[in-house]
Amino acid sequence: MNNKFNLLNLDINQLEKIAVDIKLKPFQAKQIYKWLHEKMIRQIDEITNISKESRTLLSEIAYIPYIELKKREISKIDRTEKFLFELNDKNTIETVLLRHKDRNTICVSTQAGCPVKCAFCATGQGTFHRNLDLSEILNQVYIVNRRLSKENTNITNIVFMGMGEPLLNIDTLIESINTFSSEDGINISKRKITISTCGIIPGIERLLENHLPVELAISLHAADDFKRNGIIPINKTYPIDDLLFSLKNYQRLTKRRISFEYILIDDFNLFPEDVNNLRTILKDYDHVLNLIPYNEVEGVPFKRPPENKINNFFNSLKRYGINVTLRREKGSDISGACGQLKEKNRSES
Ligand code: SF4
Fold it and tell me: How far apart, in whole angstroms, are the C-alpha atoms of residue 47 and residue 339?
């Protein structure tokens, strides 16, 4: 299989070359593309509008890749589902399906492990293995969507908020966004795609260069460089002021509201000075600030604040006119909430 073409990694131009190789007309590449990305088939034999002979020829030179579902957990609280997938090289990744009344959102991983190593994050505590390839990102969505279609529903929103820093796998991320939003594929509007990032400035610039007006969710988590350096090491490379300058540009050109994510950590980032700093940071943006009470992770010393501190912080921000929400995490009983995803091996060792 290794010498064959991975069909999900090919764009339409590459598929056209393959179509010609198997004696099809170039335009039939588009039909194959639709089978792969709209119908999300598993087997080449399911392509019923090309001849048996063409399917045989195609199978000789190409294959449809797969990632193996090893485990599925369902939250008793809110029906959030967490999927553990094993990749061909035995690395594992997690994907989460969040069910809302009016939409199904899938939280997708972009890397096996994460090199950013945020101090509060389960993924960041493990080893970084590698970037995912395009087919591995697409398959997380396609496999879950096939399951949903049996319930007569489908994925409506995608958030790149699973394992890994999406903007450190930027080329593949851009290809995946273009594939997901293609009218010949699953056709999810770019406006329903969100990238969560700790603030990789060159990646934000690449999104602009490629005219991808997706939603940005910035993992801020601290409102001054000293604190942020302590929990997000890459802040030393991309400090808050530089990041804000880049976001200003992003908002000016895309007209998109920017979400700022702020994990609430007890005795760390809920002080009056944090309220003031957030007020200064957010005043120039069309923003929403999402407060997320910390989901405790084994082996990590941070604690979730008590409810009264959470509410006081929320109310102080509100009083200052900040557009703030308090997010109650979905899937916390299956470790499917923000910052809780991790590799199988480490969690079970
Ligand atoms: S929070 Fe995101 S960027 Fe930070 S270590 Fe975890 S997965 Fe990586």
Answer: 40
Ligand 1, closest atom to CA 117? Answer: 5
Residue 124 CA: nearest ligand 1 atom is 5
Indicate if ligand 1 lies below 6 Å from the C-beta of 164.
yes
Q: Is 206 exposed, middle or buried (0-12, 13-18, 19+ CB in 10 A)?
A: middle
Atom 4 of ligand 1, residue of closest alpha carbon: 118
Ligand 1 atom with the shortest distance to the CA of 115 = 8
The residues that are catalytic are: 94, 338
Binding site membership of 122 for ligand 1 (Cβ less than 6 Å):
no
**DSSP three-state, residue 139:** helix
Separation between Cα atoms, residue 274 and residue 290, nearest integer Å: 14
Domains of the chain: 5-63 (1.10.150.530), 68-348 (3.20.20.70)
Cα 115 to ligand 1 centre (Å): 8
Distance CA 40, CA 314 (A): 43
Tokens 């392509």, residue?
47
Residue with tokens 């979400």: 259
CB neighbours of 105 closer than 8 A, spacing ≥ 6? 97, 98, 155, 156, 157, 158, 159
In single-letter form, the type of residue at position 116 comes to: V
pLDDT value of position 346: 41
> Which residues fall within 8 angstroms of residue 216, CB to CB, at 6 or more apart?
194, 195, 197, 204, 207, 247, 250, 256, 258, 259
- Nearest residue (CA) to ligand 1, atom 7: 164
For residue 316, give both structure tokens: 């102080």
* 0.85 exceeded by pTM: yes
Q: Across the 349 residues of the chain, what is the mean pLDDT of every consecutive 10-residue run?
A: 89 95 91 97 95 94 97 92 96 95 96 94 90 98 97 97 96 98 97 96 97 94 97 97 97 95 96 97 94 88 95 97 86 63 48
Helix axes 52-61, 12-21, angle to 10 degrees: 120
